[in-house]
């Protein structure tokens, strides 16, 4: 059994990419991206309606490490 994945591109805001590599994430059982991901203790929220056509999804930071 293989695990289907997608690429999450992390942003500090809606328009500014974070200065790090995209993150590989597993799809949910319904083959949709996770609405929120935790990367190195920072939460990121999926941005709006996005087409899964290319397997790349944009996420916006919602919290800082340590909950600040």
Question: How would you describe this structure to a colleague?
Answer:
With 68 residues, this protein is mostly beta strands. Helices cover 0% and strands 38% of the residues. It has a five-stranded mixed sheet with strand order 2-1-5-4-3, with no helix packed on it.
Question: What is the secondary structure topology, with strand pairs?
Answer:
Blueprint: E1 5-11, E2 23-26, E3 36-39, E4 42-46, E5 56-61
Parallel strand pairs: 1-5
Antiparallel strand pairs: 1-2, 3-4, 4-5
Q: What brief labels describe this structure?
A:
five-stranded mixed β-sheet, 68 residues
Helical stretch tally: 0
* N- and C-termini, Cα separation: 40 Å
Unreliable spans: none
Shape: globular
Tell me about the biggest sheet? 5 strands, mixed
Derived from helix and strand composition plus strand pairing, the structural class reads mainly beta
Number of strands: 5
- Sheet with the most strands: spatial strand order: 2-1-5-4-3
User: Into which percent range does the helicity of residues fall?
Assistant: under 10%
What sequence of helices (H) and strands (E) makes up the elements?
Answer: EEEEE
Strand content: 35-45%
Q: Rounded to an integer, what's the Rg over CA atoms?
A: 12 Å
**Mean of residue pLDDT values:** 83
């Amino acid at each position: 059994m293989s695990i289907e994945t997608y690429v999450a591109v992390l942003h500090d805001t809606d328009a500014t990419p974070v200065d790090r590599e995209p993150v590989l994430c597993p799809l949910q059982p319904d083959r949709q991206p996770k609405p929120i991901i935790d990367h190195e203790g920072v939460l990121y929220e999926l941005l709006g309606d996005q087409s899964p056509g290319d397997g790349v999804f944009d996420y916006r930071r919602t919290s800082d490490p340590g909950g600040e």
